[in-house]
Amino acid sequence: METIEHLELSSKLETIRVSALHALAYCHRLFYLEEVEELYTQDAAVFAGRRLHAELEKQEDEEWEELFLISEELGIRGRVDALRTRNGETIPYEHKRGKCHRDENKQPQAWESDKLQILAYCCLLESALGLSIKEGRIRYHADNVLVHIPFDDAGRAAVKQAIEIARQLKQSTYRPPVTDNERLCTRCSLAPVCLPEEARLAHEREWQPIRLFPEDDDRQIIHVLEPGTSVGRTGEQIKITRRNQPVEIIPARQIGQLVMHSFSQISTQALHFCREQEIGVHFISGGGRYLGSFDTRQGSIQRRIHQYTALSDANICLELARKLVICRAQGQRKFLMRGKAKAKAKERLIKATEQMKAVLKLVPQAKSLQSLLGYEGNLAALYFDALVDLISPDAPQEMLFDSRNRRPPTDRFNAMLGFGYSLLIKDVMNAILTVGLEPALGFYHQPRSQAAPLALDLMEIFRVPLVDMTVMASVNRNQWDVKADFDIRGKQVWLSETGKRKFVELYENRKQETWKHPVTGYSLTYRRLLELEVRLLEKEWMGEGGLFAQLIVR
Ligand code: SF4
């Protein structure tokens, strides 16, 4: 026998929220992103709206009452802001923090989406409570305007039609296109994940997108480097207790990621709290190897279904992989060219850039991932053999290296590259988890090591600008103490604790630098670019492709 809770739950699942109809009236894509792809952002406007409702709830005016209603007959549910009864007539009210719409005669009107929402509440009251409703009202608090919305057959029909469209969209696997009304996007809470301007650019290369991507994230990335440190929760704050050091307490809203290095501990309470606060938690071994991330994704199953479908297609994978190899190798070549421009450029460096150019011409014709791997290996060998020539003659001899080596690194330069790539993969994972894609399903790398293939794919784009350039610049600026910053055990070389701390600072500072995206034309910090690139990848199989892997070092 079904329990009451179960019946309530199943009817809730089948009904559509009235606030979702509000989103539908605003833009079909917004409804789809929220209700089907389960993407929500908590932007300032949403918070402001919530505050308004909370303030209203506090008013002890007996005329105000919040009412939750479900109508299975109509297939909708919702919470009416307030009801007022006068002379036997009940009127639902909806409160909006913003201003009303003005018609051509400057007369106050309700916005279409607000109108549909109050009409849906009228329907809900009529159906669920059997009340006779003649009108609904919307109060716009910013300009203190009250708009009356008559409730008639036309209103009922508009609500029914919206419910029908909503049901169809919920069944659809096709994400609706961006709205033609660009002004809606500038006020849309989901613009940062919808990326409407980039979608328009994908269809029309002459389009000059405006940046609707969110402000740069200024929350801190806390690296817990010292073994034996414990991280816990105290109230709304994160508490970090290091051995022989004062306790550090940081408000959670100021933290974007917690990176646990070596054998530091984090409590279960702190982990739960980080999940609630959307703080990424990542783990890196004492040897500087990326171990994993705390995965708290929920929903977004539609996104992953699209990803599975697309990346099960060998042609799509090959096309994306070609773009990726070109992006990385062009970045490597451009970086080497900086050394080539110097008067005393070494012959090896000149030769490498020319040979890379020749191999790069072959990449677009690669017929399989296997042949692409061959070209990529070739390009990487040319790059790393010549990279040492970018080291300044004034840098300490100890910083020179022969070639790329790892597991374990055998020289200081490679020890830094290895640690840097671990930090990078951690950031790419953070971006993948934020966007809601499946890290285990890539298009180029195969599942071989602990690192997720999609993260390995995406990090290729950022290796040169975020790690190689950071390492080279620091070596040429003589920022390293060749003894104190490294631990040398036999032939193995690792960054010491002070070396890691120094590297983390250099790397995090680099991520805060801005780069003008060569295709979208607006500037973002590298930190934001990581997320943008994951979102652009997802567009590749959603019919809005062509912008992925264009970030090439100048
Ligand atoms: S950003 Fe524009 S296209 Fe995208 S959901 Fe919002 S209103 Fe619709």
Report on the structure:
By secondary structure, the chain is α/β, with parallel strands linked by helices. Among the domains are: 4-26 and 50-165, no CATH class; 220-293, Ribosomal Protein L15, Chain: K, domain 2; 318-387. It contains 19 helices and 21 strands. It has helices at residues 4-14, 18-26, 28-36, 44-58, 112-129, 153-171, 182-186, 191-194, 196-203, 268-276, 301-311, 314-340, 347-362, 369-387, 412-435, 453-459, 463-476, 497-511, 526-540; strands spanning 16-17, 67-71, 76-80, 82-86, 89-96, 101-102, 108-109, 135-140, 145-150, 220-224, 230-234, 237-241, 248-251, 255-261, 265-266, 280-284, 290-293, 486-489, 492-495, 514-516, 523-525. The strands form 7 sheets. A 4-stranded mixed β-sheet has the order 4-5-8-9. Strands 10-14-16-17 form a 4-stranded mixed β-sheet. A 4-stranded mixed β-sheet has the order 13-12-11-15. The model is unreliable at 1-12, 42-51 and 57-62 (pLDDT under 50). The structure holds iron/sulfur cluster (SF4). Iron/sulfur cluster (SF4) is lined by residues 27, 29-30, 33, 178-179, 184-185, 188, 190-191, 194, 196. Iron/sulfur cluster binds at residues 27, 29-30, 33, 178-179, 184-185, 188, 190-191, 194, 196.
List keywords for this structure.
554 residues, Ribosomal Protein L15, Chain: K, domain 2, four-stranded mixed sheet, 19 helices, 21 strands, 46% helix, 17% strand, elongated, binds iron/sulfur cluster
Beta-strand portion reads 15-25%
Structural class: alpha/beta
The rough form would be described as elongated
Span between termini: 67 Å
Would you summarize the structure shown here?
By secondary structure, this protein is α/β, with parallel strands linked by helices. The chain is built from 19 helices and 21 strands.
